[in-house]
């Protein structure tokens, strides 16, 4: 069952030429008012699912954002899906030709999520709230190491065991990244907290893959922090912020990163993690 919602406050942006958030009339025009924007934008939600369609009449290029400012869609009409954390409002804003914004916002209720990428359930748990990860001391290839992306899906050449990770962490001046180290991924605002006391955020892109372009689950990018021992030891222990999700199941995940972006088939490093249960 579909229900039609007219934006009371619902946020949108208009773009012209390269910037479709600006309505292009060929000459300066007065800024659109909130009442005018409200009358031109219609949103339809599929029941209480995370699926929406939007349209404008007369046609007006807009951007649709969530309450945290993440852009979900742009154009004069289209479809969008929202993923956890829960969207509580949708915003449509228009950039007027004088550079000002006109915005409207509409509260929405989502009780059923469909077609959510598996990474959300794995990373944050089945309730899409938060989950804590630590080293996978059950992996026979160790918890950290290197190999080649073409031939390996985990540590192969140089392998660091669970028993040796404390020594590696201490020698790399990351003592809190040892066997008792942890990372807590929090779905709300994509926050990640670490045992070293360094917090940050993450983003996921399902369109970015390893050079093989098959078999992986996209790219996980860290900002403000990095995962346990997320450094490149042959690059002066330089922090690494972008990782391919090479393998994952409900309780395990393997991250990988090429040592050199110019040689993606050269040396790569691998990190094996599991869900922390206590």
Structure report:
This is Lipoprotein. It comes from Prevotella micans F0438. Keywords: Signal. It is a single chain. By secondary structure, the protein is mainly beta. It folds into two domains: 2-107, Immunoglobulin-like; 118-275, Beta Barrel (Lipocalin). Helices cover 8% and strands 40% of the residues. It contains three helices and 22 strands. Strands 11-14-15-16-17-20-21-22 form an eight-stranded antiparallel barrel. The chain has a four-stranded antiparallel sheet with strand order 1-4-5-8.
List the main descriptive attributes of the protein structure presented here.
4-stranded antiparallel sheet, 278 residues, Immunoglobulin-like, signal, Lipoprotein, 3 helices, 2 domains, disordered N terminus, Lipocalin, 8-stranded antiparallel β-barrel, mainly beta, 22 strands
Short note summarizing the structure:
By secondary structure, the chain is mainly β.
In round numbers, the mean pLDDT is 87
* Separation, N- and C-terminal Cα atoms: 43 Å
| Gyration radius, rounded | 23 Å
Q: And the CATH topology of the largest domain?
A: Lipocalin
Please state the second-level CATH architecture of the largest domain: Beta Barrel
| CATH class assignment of the largest domain | Mainly Beta
């Amino acid at each position: 069952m579909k229900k039609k919602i007219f934006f009371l406050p619902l946020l949108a942006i208009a773009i012209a030429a390269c910037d479709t958030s600006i309505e292009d009339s060929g000459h300066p025009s007065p800024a659109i008012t909130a009442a005018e924007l409200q009358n031109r934008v219609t949103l339809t939600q599929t029941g209480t699912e995370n699926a929406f369609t939007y349209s404008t009449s007369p046609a007006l290029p807009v951007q649709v954002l969530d309450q945290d400012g993440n852009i979900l869609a742009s154009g004069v009409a289209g479809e969008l899906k929202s993923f956890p954390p829960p969207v509580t409002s949708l915003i449509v804003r228009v950039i007027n030709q004088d550079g000002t914004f006109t915005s409207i916002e509409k509260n929405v209720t989502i009780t059923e999520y469909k077609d959510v990428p598996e990474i959300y359930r794995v990373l944050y748990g089945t309730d899409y709230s938060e989950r804590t990860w630590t080293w996978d001391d059950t992996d026979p290839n160790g918890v950290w190491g290197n190999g080649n992306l073409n031939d390996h899906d985990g540590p192969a050449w140089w392998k660091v065991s669970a028993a040796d990770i404390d020594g590696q962490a201490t020698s790399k001046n990351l003592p809190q990244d040892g066997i008792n180290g942890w990372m807590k991924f929090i779905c709300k605002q994509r926050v990640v907290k670490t045992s070293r006391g360094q917090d940050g955020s993450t983003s996921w892109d399902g369109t970015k893959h390893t050079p093989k372009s098959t078999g992986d689950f996209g790219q996980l990018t860290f900002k403000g922090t990095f995962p346990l021992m997320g450094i490149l030891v042959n690059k002066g222990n330089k922090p690494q912020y972008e990782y391919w999700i090479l393998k994952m199941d409900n309780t395990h995940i393997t991250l990988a990163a090429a040592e050199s972006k110019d040689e993606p088939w050269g040396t790569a490093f691998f990190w094996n993690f599991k869900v922390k249960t206590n």
